[in-house]
Amino acid sequence: MRESSVQRWNLWSGLITAVTIICAVIWAFPLYWAVVSSIKPEDEVVRPYIELWPETLTFQHYIHALTATQIGTWYLNSIVVAVGVTVVCVFTSMLCGYALSQLRFPGRTTLWWIILASFMVPTQALIINHFELIANLGLVNTWIGTMLPQFIHPVIIIVYKQFFDQVPRDFREAALMDNASEFAILFKVYLPMNWGVTTALSIVCFIWTWNAFLWPFLSVTRTEMMTVTVGITQVNDAFGVYYARELAAAVLAGLPVALAYLLFQRRVTEAITLSAGIKG
Amino acid sequence: MLQDRRKNLLVALALIAPFAAIYALAFAYPTIQMFRISFTSAPLIGAGDWVGIENYTRLGKDPLFSRAVWNTLYFVALTVVPGTLIALMIALGVSRLAGRLQALVLALFFLPYILPVSVVYLIWDWTLNFQFGIAMHVLDWLGIPRIPVTKSRTWFMPAVAWVTIWWTAGFSILLFLAGMRAIPAEIYEAAALDNASRWTTFSRITWPLLRPVTALVLTIQLILQLKIFDQVYLFSIGGRPNENMVLVYYIFNKAFQQNQGGRAAAVAVTLFVIIVVVSVLQFQLLRLAGRRRQ
């Protein structure tokens, strides 16, 4: 009696596990299908039946994307914008988070509430005035113009403050005894103790910026200034109605972020959970 | 002592200044401008005349605006609750796995979330392609006639909603998994000793303890989906953007395609207010969730 219920339990467990794995494979299948289609010759792509692996494997679509389209330029734009935003955003947020966490100054509580409140503002509502701003500054079709509104991620300050709050006070007091300046304490004590969260936040900030669509789409009108995520959808004649070429471009556009995720899986998931306000 | 406090203030100012400068320029100023020009007849760039609340009252008479509101609400209805339920079921399945297998399965579910929306669009545009898409082969097998999904009035929103769920579920799954990990193992051990059934364990332990996380996921989803633009815009290329109008699309259309900054700003302010209200709600839930876990 007991034994059979244990067996049934195991059967159920096995079944649920199998269903989960099958669902995961189906879930990720469109990704696989896009990649496989991009390494088939164009005439195989449009065959009326499903072939899970190409009959003739070819990289011609990638060569076409890299040599005959502007994807290289878009890549450069994306890298400059994403790295620029990440460096400026993480650095300024770290300084501000440190001040909020460790220093006592008039207006501190007000600043904290302003940052918490900004967390709620939908940047989509600001597109008109962001555009007006960069137009007045003459920054349409420039890297800086594409970067400017993306420099602010209040959540990064919030996460930094939480982490700096957790550093034991003894470290700070010992450093102050040695007459260390606040900058020295931040860069020699607090930052090294929080390298983990700094890397995690930098990676997700890079991913967010790389993936941004609406603002880079609006801030640029010239094709040679587009980021790769915008370029691959806006310049139709670059790929024509060649499905495989389009998919090869999609794979190239997604590759850096997919790699960043696969290489730093734990850090990325950690930072994403943190950004939702939950400590994982 | 006094000198110390002054020094402290200067250091604090130096640390905050870079952020404050960017914030004032790229955040505070545009926000104030948004409110201001929503009461004027300004074009996209440049000044306009003061028109009071006319931009707001005209919205009520604009059929395109009401379509944008309805489509946004329809999209929210199609994504928020269904997406959260799907993510919860996946998270329950993934949480039972262990070690490398769990990491692998989680990665398969999570990978779409990490991709840019334009890549997600191209992948699904190809998958749903009327002539060659693999989804159409599946329909053929099932004996259902093929549907030109992105050109169809009936199926456009459900299809975009499904793509959105596929794209964003990974995030909700992560939050659910974090919530499940926070439930102490002893509770499950006690339940096992009492020979509690699988369903009892779920309905009496897992589900009640996950309620704060569920509320959080629902509000995050709600805020995210109210701001829908990218997918609708991309799938409407070469289709019927006016049929598929949503709120952010309306802002884009009025400001950037019709050069009516003031009227677009009125919609932006409306969206802004809705989202701030929902976010305040979310903030309260977060505090509640934080208190529960301690």
UniProtKB/TrEMBL annotation, chain A:
Domain ABC transmembrane type-1, residue spans: 75-264
Topological category with respect to the lipid bilayer: Multi-pass membrane protein
Gene3D superfamilies: MetI-like
Entry's localization field: Cell membrane
Major localisation: membrane
Keyword Manganese found: no
Keywords assigned: Cell membrane, Membrane, Transmembrane, Transmembrane helix, Transport
Segments crossing the lipid bilayer: 12-35, 74-99, 111-131, 143-164, 185-210, 247-264
Keyword Signal: no
A cellular component term, taken from the record's GO annotations: plasma membrane
InterPro entries on file: MetI-like, MetI-like_sf
Alphabetized PANTHER family for the sequence: ABC TRANSPORTER PERMEASE PROTEIN MG189-RELATED, ABC TRANSPORTER PERMEASE PROTEIN MG189-RELATED-RELATED
Family: Belongs to the binding-protein-dependent transport system permease family.
Protein name: Carbohydrate ABC transporter permease
Organism: Chelativorans petroleitrophicus
TrEMBL record, chain B:
Domain (ABC transmembrane type-1) ranges: 69-282
Membrane-topology descriptor: Multi-pass membrane protein
Signal peptide limits: none
Transmembrane intervals: 73-92, 104-124, 159-185, 205-224, 264-286
Main location: membrane
Family annotation (InterPro entries): ABC_transporter_permease (IPR051393), MetI-like (IPR000515), MetI-like_sf (IPR035906)
Xref: CDD domains: TM_PBP2 (cd06261)
UniProt entry keywords in alphabetical sequence: Cell membrane, Membrane, Transmembrane, Transmembrane helix, Transport
One GO term of the biological process aspect: transmembrane transport
A Gene Ontology cellular-component term: plasma membrane
Protein's cellular compartments: Cell membrane
Taxonomic superkingdom: Bacteria
Family: Belongs to the binding-protein-dependent transport system permease family.
Protein name per the record: Sugar ABC transporter permease
Organism whose genome encodes this protein: Chelativorans petroleitrophicus
